[in-house]
Write a structure and sequence with these properties.
6 helices; 7-stranded mixed sheet; mainly beta; globular; 516 residues
């Protein structure tokens, strides 16, 4: 045990050798029309929308100084960051903290800990993420594994017609997967998709496009007809270059693709973004919704058009075809297998809508954050009941190989995100009665010798999905659907990893405790 403590403390010293980058965020309301259709009270930073991207270099520590000018608590999650030895900075309201109260300030110390790649920061208390509290977070490599001439950021967002959590719209928001007026619009690089600014290419140059789905609920497809895409990073994990025609991204996913421009500027092109959700009724011009944005080689050059090709004729990314550059073998043997099934429960709040769960109960936040329970209850922290049955908590021992077996017998797709770790995508297969609907169950796929690792993955309808991770960091990790209305309706569970080590190695900042 003393050796383990020494290793954890040494890791904390070594990872703090980079620069310290300070960013000030005053989180507040602003009335704005981001899509050109509706004006409403969104959430912004420093009086602005969109929120400026955050850039740091490999090894740096981000000091995110946050002041809460809202009238409710706020917390900020750095999506994809491990937060090793600092679970309390994971930014999950009523899981790792109580939230920053109105008119209060707090500094998140985000040690990048050797991670590089494409991430994002978003609100994780209530529904601030759907109301606009989200921004890209880029950790630039000191020595990139691939060479390129220019780094281009492309953000994709869904944007509602009113605040997600407004009292007058609450029932409509809960029903928005059935209700026509609340189909969102699309923001590309912070601007309404129909008016998005062009991307500029120069002949012969090589570009790294960082595509970030900062979506609250919808999926995006991204293509550059007439150009070859090579995926080189996914969710902060560098991969061997993989050629694809396009990206099909669930909420929360990120990709870097390399694109080599044509040798001539004789033509301009257009890149395509399709916005959709399989669990929302299809409706012409709303779901799916298609956007074309100029890709400019030369002002005034004619635009080359391509005939429409069906999605089934194209090559899309596939976790089972990706190989991480750092080839971690399949984790085995499995020490602990946790099986959870997506379930629907009795309707609530009089809206006639079911709650969801990944376990026995629809997740609801405990009255005391789960991290505080893990840190303060001694041996009782090893008992999952200490965290409340409604948190669907599973306690995991240090350095166990854990397999999460997720079962989805329903006709709805989901976006599964795991905090604090990346998981290996091990197996996907059919489950349930897809023949009773118009949906198609996925075909059986199994990982090869070096499974893909990531933190967010599509969990298809009528499927089971096996994910594995090594519990090598004491942590309190939420695992949940990243579609806002599914998470809000209870589709989550908690993993408490090595609570005895948590108690010996981590101490919450005093100011954070006072907020409780």
């Amino acid at each position: 045990m003393l050796l383990l403590l020494g290793i954890i403390q040494l890791f904390g010293i070594l990872r703090a050798l980079g620069a310290r980058v300070e960013v000030d965020w005053d989180v507040g309301y602003l009335n704005i029309s981001r899509d050109g259709y509706s004006t409403w009270q969104a959430v912004g930073v420093n009086g602005r929308q969109p929120i400026a991207p955050v850039y740091v270099d490999e090894g740096d520590t981000l000091l995110l100084n946050v002041h809460n000018s809202l009238d409710k608590p706020v917390s900020l999650h750095s999506h994809g960051l491990f937060q090793r030895n600092a679970t309390y900075y994971d930014g999950v309201g009523m899981v790792t903290e109580c939230g920053i109260p109105p008119s209060e300030s707090f500094t998140y110390v985000i040690d990048t800990g050797g991670q590089t790649g494409t991430f994002w920061i978003h609100g994780h208390y209530g529904s601030e993420v759907a109301n606009g509290l989200r921004a890209p977070f880029i950790i630039r490599e000191k020595a990139p594994a691939v060479q390129y001439d220019e780094d281009v950021l492309i953000t994709l967002e869904d944007w509602l017609q009113m605040p997600y959590d407004s009292m007058g719209a609450e029932e409509e928001q809960l029903r928005f997967d059935h209700l026509f007026p609340n189909y969102p619009t699309v923001l590309i690089n912070g601007i309404d998709g129909n008016r998005s600014q062009p991307i500029h290419f120069r002949p012969g140059k090589r570009y790294r496009l960082r595509v970030v789905s900062m979506s609250a609920s919808y999926w995006f497809k991204f293509r550059l007809p007439g150009h070859k895409l090579e995926i080189v990073e996914s969710d902060g994990i560098a991969i061997e270059p993989l050629a694809v025609d396009g990206l099909d991204m669930c909420p929360g996913q990120r990709y870097s693709v390399l694109v080599t421009a044509h040798d001539t500027d004789a033509f301009n092109f257009r890149f395509n973004v399709t916005f959709y959700a399989e669990y929302v009724p299809k409706l012409a011009d709303f779901n799916p919704r298609h956007y074309e944005i100029p890709l400019v080689y030369r002002q005034g050059a004619p635009t080359r058009r391509y005939s429409i090709v069906g999605d089934d004729k194209l090559v899309w990314q596939d976790e089972f075809a990706m190989v991480p550059r750092n080839r971690q073998p399949l984790l085995e043997p499995v020490d602990r297998r946790i099986t959870v099934s997506k379930q629907e429960h009795t309707p609530y709040d009089g809206f006639g809508l079911p709650t969801y769960s990944l376990g026995d109960y629809a997740y609801t936040h405990p009255m005391v954050p789960s991290l505080i329970t893990a840190l303060t209850t001694g041996d009782w922290a090893n008992n999952s009941l200490a965290y409340g049955p409604q948190t669907n908590t599973h306690v995991v021992e240090y350095m166990e190989v854990v397999e999460l077996m997720l079962v989805n017998p329903s006709g709805k797709d989901h976006s599964i995100h795991m905090h604090g770790y990346v998981f290996q995508v091990v197996e996907l297969g059919p489950m349930g009665n897809a023949s009773a609907t118009q949906r198609t169950a996925p075909k059986l796929k199994r990982a090869g010798q070096w499974p893909m690792r990531r933190d967010t993955v599509t969990f298809p309808a009528y499927s089971y999905l096996a994910l594995r991770f090594l519990a090598d960091s004491p942590f309190v990790a939420l695992v949940h659907c990243h579609a806002q209305q599914h998470k809000q309706r209870g589709m989550a569970f908690t993993l408490v990893v090595a609570p005895e080590l948590l108690q010996q190695t981590q101490r919450m900042p005093e100011k954070m405790l006072k907020f409780c």
